[in-house]
Amino acid sequence: MAVKTIKTPAVIIGGGVAGLAAAIDLSRRGLSSLVVERGPRLGGRVADFCCKATDSCVRCGACRLADLVRRVAARPEIAIYTSAKPVAAEADGDGWRLTLEPQRNNGPAPVVELAGGPLPRRSQVQAGAVILAVGATPFDPSAKSRFGYRRVPGVVSALELEGALEHSLAELAGGRDPRRVAFIQCVGSRDESLGHLYCSRVCCGFALRMARVIQARRPGTEITFFHMDVQTYGRAWAGELAEMREQMNFVRAMPGEVTAGPGGPQVVYAAGGRSQTAEFDLVVLSQGMRPPVGAAALSQLFACTRTSDGFLGSDAEPVASGAAGVFIAGSARGPMSIVESIEHGAVAAAAAAGHLQPLVREAAHA
Amino acid sequence: MPEVSLIWIEEAGLEGLDPAKAAKKAGVALSDGGLVEAAVVTTTEARAPRSLVNRLKGYPVKWLDLAAEVGGGPLALRQARAAAAVARAAGSAALGTMAQRYTRQPNQEVLVAGRGLAAVAAAHQAAALGHPVLLALETTRARAACADEKPAEVKRALAGLPAQVEVVTGTELVELLGAGGDFQARLQGPRRTSRRRFGAVVLAPPSAYAVPGDMPATAEDITLPVSRLKPKQYQGGEQWLQAAVIAPLGPGATAHGFARAVTAALALQKRPRVQVTLFLGEAKVASEGGERLYRDARRQGVLAMRVEPGGLRVSRDGRKLSFDDPVLGEPVDLRPDLVVLSEEVTGRAPAWLDNPLVTTAWDQDLPDHPRLQAGRTARSGLYLIGGARGAAPGDPRRAQAAAAAADLHGLLSGEAVAVPAVRDVLCASCLTCVRVCPHGVVCYAEDHIAPAPAACLACGVCTAECPAEAIAPPGWSNREMIASLAAGLKAAAGDKLVLFACRNSGMDAARALSLAGHQWPKGLLMVPVNCAGRVGVQLILRALSLGAGGVLVAGCHQGNCRSLNGNLRAKLRSGEAADLLAQVGGRPEQVRFMHLASNQPRALAQAVAELAQTAGEK
Ligand SMILES: Cc1cc2nc3c(=O)[nH]c(=O)nc-3n(C[C@H](O)[C@H](O)[C@H](O)COP(=O)(O)OP(=O)(O)OC[C@H]3O[C@@H](n4cnc5c(N)ncnc54)[C@H](O)[C@@H]3O)c2cc1C
Ligand code: SF4
Ligand code: SF4
Ligand code: SF4
Ligand code: SF4
After folding, report:
1. What is the DSSP pairing of strand B274-280 with strand B241-246?
2. Within-domain flag for B83
3. What's the pTM value of the predicted model, to 2 decimals?
């Protein structure tokens, strides 16, 4: 059977915010691209994030996805295949030859798609440059069994809370009205026992924004924030953080364990040199980011390097991969926020354009 | 008036609808593919087949995201909604306005002013994208690096600039008028001042490291900032040398500043017989490799001591540091031989930018705005990058430069929407538009109102606020919008409601609902606007007088508006309209405003349902 070959200057693996931003930036530079997304719809992780504005926008950046999708749709130079992933890749002259395989995605077809469609059949792509924008993988909190995830009722992951934020929290809390909510930070990050010697950067802000939403919707909800350090960046956060310190209970301690108590999950932690126990209705584990699940396979496929934290790319350079013509964009390169991923996508695109056009190439090395 | 044809493009969301019926109900002719005088197309320009877009070039066309407006429910209801939406679009298409693009061509030349790696990289990137570039360095070439950069790195970048970049030295930008596509700059050189026009301007003001103001004041002879520390000069003797490194303590502490402090602490700790105590507020380990570095420092023997804000006290002679040991809970004194203070990147845009008479729409603190990335400022075509925007030296500055260059290239090659039309005969020269335009597009020059050619986002804020109906981006004048409201409401069936929805939030949410089959009230007319700020008192009252039982204005959340405060203006104007309504005996609840994000479809559905209920209560 003859396999169809698609020729394109650049192929982008992953249709999250970083991949979409890279595609837009390439098209601004006059370069066409093909976005290959494994899932049934564009947007990656951000497609599941709700708005956390209370009385004003808290700059989470989630609504930027709609902008990106709209702009991608408005650019005929951007082609999109959903439900597809690369299964083979070989360097070919100055570029790459990829084999794409359709993916079966269960569940109903997405409805908010503006552009592109599922890959109909196994295809070959000939591209001058490849951008890997496959995202990071959220840490699975069950790997830290002492926090009681999936064992103690009322213990949930931050992503589960996110999913329920627009709906009802009572279900998460096992039917109890959640009036006492605790967040445990750095679950799976900054953790020597796991070998995760990095901060995931976004989870402090993520948790604090959700805490604010909860307090805004249910005034009087008691929030306890167990943490080592608060990582928030951006000048405006300084003011908000001061406000939150007044309204929430910031405890600088990493809890030892979470157990089932009579009135809800109990958190055991050390404070003032003594062991303390506090009971909550809901305990939220702020899971961090891990290198993409497919990192090993992808780095083998494209002969690219990994950072010392195991993400794709190299420590020394922001978007280079160690392989000629292959670039890394977004949280596949290391933990970064939505807005940072969008900017990083643009930087990867600039580097890819440099690879494709000699004049720009000099600029990238300047 | 031209006859309006309906061009129907089948796509998801329009299943089962009868184009002929919709056309008939809306009072337009269904196109048979022949020539048209004016057209309504059922899909957006972006999704339409290229051949159609090309064929319709030069005609008055209204592109309609019909699928987003129709929604789900029984076929009869969807059919009625489709007819009203088509009628609404046809109402203004009949007026024959074209989306005129550029009456003047945007100037393609780019000015990069300032110094440092960010400036040089931006010049290089813009040139690579085909723009002639003037790089105006405030300094000599040899001193082009900012105080916080490595001179050799900047020198190398300068040497690699392509020929399209003209470099002038000792030159400062002292005044800037205009906006994207047509800036007028005054440049002060070593010998003379010159004026030149540019399409886009990138500012990369000098940056430096500075010790934050909230650091403890220790004695001068033992105190150094990180950037002046030379660790090799220190080693202990019989007595160990006690060094205190103070990481950023205040709320403005950044991960970059923290990493530099830890690096300094580690370098000192590795010297013979030196003991370092590192004081910190929060361990800001979010920089790349920051956590490893912090761990390494402690493993090498650096004592990390957390202090609460104000918890690190200095004796009167500046030689003793006192703090509460967090483990022991007791006060502890330290008499350091050396105190190293951490620094943060600082940089400020030139002071003249803060002068509202010279530059409107300027705000230093905008970098946190989620829609103003890539060094954008609110003023379209003007970029601010480098240390003044918080970027750490090296790659972060290169990255910002690349993003800004790509953005300005998009702007100058036609991403902006249109040039607003000004009707000089009506204009009262009140300068309201100059004052309110969030993007600095409108200038007053040579005795008339002169908008810049590539900067307008067609937000319509000027149109809503102009007292004389003298300015509007093409397609968004009161005349056109009222004609379309009239036609749409006339064709709408059932209890009539109007939703003015911002394209950045409300319309995206509406689209998500429609495509998921949400059943809208039958008589709901959606009116997409580029910014809620387009909706003034007049439009709201007109919608009511034309038969709407309720009006909802959906704009972005506070702090998220692409046009800065268009959403707040809309909120204000909705309130005014409600008050006026109450004064003439109407019910103020018929006019509502809501803040919304594109990912909040459920909130929109609920607000529309509530509005329908209010309108139905009569
Ligand atoms: C728990 C958690 C909370 C967060 N909270 C916030 C927050 O509050 N604010 C914030 O700014 N950021 C937050 N983030 C970070 C945010 O999710 C990321 O910045 C953003 O999603 C990164 O976008 P991306 O495009 O790099 O990756 P992703 O969004 O992960 O997208 C990657 C895409 O690539 C696709 N893909 C993967 N492998 C393949 C393959 N082999 N072939 C084809 N396609 C593939 C995936 O299906 C996916 O669509 C959070 C992250 C986590 C895990
Ligand atoms: S940035 Fe986040 S909080 Fe702000 S409006 Fe968008 S989704 Fe809501
Ligand atoms: S962002 Fe906060 S919660 Fe996440 S790893 Fe860093 S310190 Fe821990
Ligand atoms: S607001 Fe209207 S009347 Fe006033 S200067 Fe501008 S165009 Fe003229
Ligand atoms: S429409 Fe908006 S951007 Fe354009 S001139 Fe008017 S106020 Fe400025």
Report:
1. parallel
2. yes
3. 0.93
Q: What is the ipTM of this complex?
A: 0.92
pLDDT digits (tens, 9 = 90+) for A175-215: 888 999 999 999 999 999 999 999 999 999 999 999 999 99
C-alpha–C-alpha distance, residues B195 and B185, integer Å? 6
> Do B115 and B151 meet the contact criterion of CB atoms below 8 Å apart?
no
**B560 alpha carbon to ligand 2 midpoint, in Å?**
7
Residues in chain B within 8 Å Cβ distance of A225: none
Identify whether residues B329 and B228 lie together within a single domain.
yes
Same domain, B220 and B331: yes
Of all ligands present, the nearest one to the C-alpha of A236 is 2
User: Which phi and psi angles does A2 have, rounded to 5°?
Assistant: -70, 130
Whole domain around residue B270: which residue ranges?
212-342
User: In total, how many domains does chain B have?
Assistant: 4
Write down the CATH superfamily of domain A4-136+291-365.
Answer: FAD/NAD(P)-binding domain (3.50.50.60)
First-to-last alpha carbon distance for chain B, in angstroms, is 37
Task: State the pLDDT at residue B3.
Answer: 83
Q: Would you call B414 an interface residue with chain A, using a CB distance cutoff of 8 Å?
A: no
Single-letter code of the amino acid located at A310: G
Helix (H) or strand (E) holding B257: helix B255-269
* Residue B415 DSSP code: I
- Mean pLDDT for A209-235 is 90
Q: Distance between CA B69 and CA B122 in Å, rounded?
A: 42
CB contact A304 to B (< 8 Å): no
List where CATH 3.50.50.60 sits in chain A: 4-136+291-365, 139-289
B286/A49 touch (CB, cutoff 8 Å), yes or no: no
Cα separation, B112 vs B204, whole angstroms: 7
User: Exposed e or buried b for every residue in A283-315, given b needs 16+ CB within 10 A?
Assistant: bbbbbbbbbbebbeebbebbebbbbebbbbbbe
B308 lies within 8 A of chain A by CB:
no
Beta strands B133-137; B207-210: pairing state: unpaired
Cα separation, B568 vs B595, in Å, equals 9
Which residues in chain A have their CB less than 8 angstroms from residue B598's CB? Answer: 63, 65-67
Alpha carbon of B216 to ligand 1 centroid (Å): 41
Confirm if B437 and B461 have CB atoms less than 8 A apart.
Answer: yes
Measured at the CA of A334, the angle between CA A330 and CA A335, to 5 degrees, comes to: 90
Q: Does residue B476 lie in a domain region?
A: no
In this structure, are residues B209 and B229 in contact, taking their beta carbons and an 8 Å threshold? no
Token pair of B151 as six digits: 């001179």
For ligand 4, residues with CB inside 6 Å are B 422, 427-433, 449, 466-468, 470-471
- CB < 8 Å to B557, chain A: 51, 53, 56-57
With beta carbons under 8 A apart, name residues in chain A contacting B50: 76
What pLDDT, in 10s, does the model give residues B99-132?
444 456 789 999 999 999 999 999 999 998 899 9
Assess contact for A311 and A134: CB atoms under 8 A.
no
CATH number listed for the domain at residues A139-289 = 3.50.50.60
Ligand 4 atom having least distance to the Cα of B469: 2
Contact of A1 with A45, CB cutoff 8 Å: no
Six-digit token string for A323: 């392989």
Instruction: Tell me if B368 sits within 8 A of B329, measured CB to CB.
Output: no
Q: Average pLDDT for residues A104-120, to the nearest whole number?
A: 68
